Amino acid sequence: MGTPAPREKHHRLPTEAYSGLKRVSFTACIARRTPLFASVEPRQELASLLRGCADRHGCDVVVYCFMPDHLHAVLTGRSRGSNCKRAFETFKYESGLWLARHGALAAWQKDYHDHVLRESEDWLSYVRYVLGNPVRAGLVSAPEEYAGSGSSLYSVRDLLDGLV
Questions:
Q1: Alpha-carbon 104 to chain mean position
Q2: Host H or E run for residue 64
Q3: Residue-range domains of the chain with CATH
Q4: pLDDT tens-digit map of 44-77
Q5: Is 36 helix (H, G, I), strand (E, B) or coil?
Q6: Does the pTM exceed 0.85?
Q7: Residue 113, SS3?
């Protein structure tokens, strides 16, 4: 008798909770924590793909941070028809195809963590926390030094300085 397959996490919120003018935080990990994003090419390609998938679903990428073995991203909807969850799921699917086509020896874990940011939450502090991950991991001494972070709306410096 083998080890039972892990159960897939079901998101507790309905799809509508991710629709409209929402800000949603996502964290997705590479299976077996393989440091896929220690290399520049996958980070650049997938950052571009993330921006494109977000745009197709009426969203913007407030911030992203490709750590060596996982991704943090905050998406925001631009209109009532936007859907951050669909944008991120499309990104995971399409980036998985890109990884397979380019011979990556890694793939995404099946699920991801998400958090719909409430209106009352200080979203900019959350964004600064995301940008600080490479510093806390000892990869750089300052967030703006890390080449794996960015935004489709703002410069990293403006996010850090609160000029948004």
A1: 19
A2: strand 59-67
A3: 15-161 (3.30.70.1290)
A4: 999 999 999 999 999 999 999 999 999 999 999 9
A5: helix
A6: yes
A7: strand
